[in-house]
From TrEMBL:
Protein name: Ig-like domain-containing protein
Compartment list: Cell membrane
Keywords: Cell membrane, Disulfide bond, Glycoprotein, Immunity, Membrane, Signal
Domain Ig-like: 30-135
UniProt KW Membrane keyword: yes
Coiled coil regions, renumbered to chain: none
SMART domains: IG
Position of the signal peptide: 1-28
GO cellular component: plasma membrane
Gene3D superfamilies given in the database record: Immunoglobulins
Lineage, broadest ranks: Eukaryota, Metazoa, Chordata, Craniata, Vertebrata
GO terms of biological process kind: immune system process; response to bacterium
PANTHER family to which the protein is assigned, alphabetical: T CELL RECEPTOR ALPHA VARIABLE 4, T-CELL RECEPTOR ALPHA CHAIN V REGION-RELATED
Organism, scientific name: Pygocentrus nattereri
Amino acid sequence: MLLKVSVISVMRTVSAWILMLSVCEIYAAETVDIYQKQSYVSAKPGEAVTLQCTLADRQSTEDVFWYKQPVGQMPQEVGIKGAFMEAVFSSHFKNSSFKLERVENSVSLTIPHPTKDDEAMYYCGISVMKMIKFSTGTFLAITDHPHSNISVLQTPVWQSVSPGELVTLQCTVTQSSRSPSALVQSCCRTILS
């Protein structure tokens, strides 16, 4: 009888360890390294612009999604580019001149002839466990004033946090110009994990 109890106890302990290791593997697999190095890009109307999205080597074969979010609007899916498939654009962008290209672990979104309507925040992301994990994004500004001077400050640049912890990211975009109609914007984003 004592031997049976010991075997059952050992089996429970082994089962618990297997479960813990499985959970650890799931969390390790969920780690996503996807970057957009530029937080801000400006272009003149009609001047081609390319936004870059870089993946970690272990995610280099993942499908990459691009989203556009105009200020004050909901995000819009631009399209998806897989490692082994042609780019697929959502219905709203099917007839646009946007291009998605993939070279190794980088997927770029090119807007050949941007207009003021293309001014927005652009995010790339990959699907992880049926959820899209996004990069930090790049704001594309279409500047039609030839004497603009724009600066961007984002704080913090990088910060490690625990789930459930409150995080505040601040992005300040200032634009000065010789014209009195210069625009000064500041945005503040609070993210709850």
